[in-house]
């Protein structure tokens, strides 16, 4: 079956390339607005399925979809603050100041939809980033060096952003970048595709 990545993210394409499988890329057009009362986990779970189903309207095969949000803790799950893209230096300073000495949780959803059978597998994997206590000079220097203004949370974990962290907590570092590959391999195996048995 054709393997289709329902994403316009170059980072997800790079991650999927690690598995050595041929795939095509289709960018889904879905409304990513958060619904009233929806937790961040419910949001990304729904959006991954929405993206897969949108691509399935015009393509057949095994469709991989994913979504991700970064959050700061709140008193309740619905109170968690979602860290969007800052777009400006000033907004990025505010975000990183809020992250300083705090724990940011990345919630990354994964969906694999088989258009032939209708079988759909979906999960959300969490990955936590523990930030150092950062002063204003460190934050300003980092932002000027990397300019991560189109990155959720105002940092690039695959770049110099790693210098902002005291530790990482999670099962799969790929999850932090945007695609839980260990879980994807399990989903593919459930569909009869074994990465190590596939011929290159």
Percentage of β-strand residues:
15-25%
Largest sheet: 7 strands, mixed
Q: Please tell me the overall pLDDT.
A: 93
Relative helix content: 25-40%
Structure classification = alpha/beta
Distance N to C terminus: 15 Å
The helix/strand series, from N terminus to C terminus, equals EHEHEEHEEHEHH
Task: Return residue spans where pLDDT drops below 50 for at least 5 consecutive residues.
Answer: none
Q: Mind telling me the C-alpha Rg?
A: 18 Å
Tally of individual helices = 6
The backbone outline, from C-alpha atoms, is globular
Descriptive terms for the model:
seven-stranded mixed sheet, alpha/beta, 200 residues, globular, single chain, 24% strand, 6 helices, 7 strands
Characterization of the model:
- The structure is a single chain.
- With 200 residues, the protein is of the alpha/beta class.
- It is 31% helix and 24% strand.
- Strands 1, 2, 3, 4, 5, 6 and 7 form a seven-stranded mixed β-sheet that branches.
- The mean pLDDT is 93.
List the helices and strands and how they pair.
Layout (H helix, E strand, L loop, with lengths): L2 E4 L3 H8 L6 E2 L14 H17 L5 E11 L8 E3 L5 H11 L3 E12 L5 E12 L4 H11 L18 E5 L3 H5 L3 H10 L10
Parallel strand pairs: 1-2, 1-3
Antiparallel strand pairs: 3-4, 3-5, 5-6, 6-7
Helix pairs in contact: 3-4
Short structural description:
With 200 residues, the chain is of the alpha/beta class. It has helices spanning 10-17, 40-56, 89-99, 136-146, 173-177, 181-190, and strands at residues 3-6, 24-25, 62-72, 81-83, 103-114, 120-131, 165-169.
């Amino acid at each position: 079956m054709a393997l289709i990545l329902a994403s316009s993210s170059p980072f997800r394409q790079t991650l999927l390339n690690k598995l050595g499988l041929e795939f095509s890329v289709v960018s889904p057009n879905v409304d990513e607005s958060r619904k009233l009362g929806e937790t961040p986990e419910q949001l990304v779970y729904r959006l991954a399925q929405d993206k897969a189903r949108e691509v399935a309207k015009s393509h057949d095969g095994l469709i991989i979809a994913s979504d991700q949000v970064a959050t700061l803790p709140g008193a309740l799950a619905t109170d968690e603050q979602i860290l969007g893209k800052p777009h400006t230096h000033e907004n990025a300073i505010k975000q990183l100041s809020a992250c300083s000495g705090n724990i940011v949780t990345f919630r990354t959803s994964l969906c694999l939809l088989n258009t032939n059978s209708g079988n759909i597998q979906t999960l959300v994997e969490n990955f936590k980033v523990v930030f150092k206590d950062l002063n204003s000079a460190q934050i300003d220097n980092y932002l000027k060096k990397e300019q991560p203004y189109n990155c959720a949370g105002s940092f690039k974990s695959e770049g110099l952003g790693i210098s902002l962290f005291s530790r990482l907590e999670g099962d799969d570092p790929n999850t932090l970048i945007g695609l839980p590959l260990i879980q994807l391999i399990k989903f593919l195996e459930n569909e009869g595709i074994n990465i190590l048995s596939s011929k290159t």
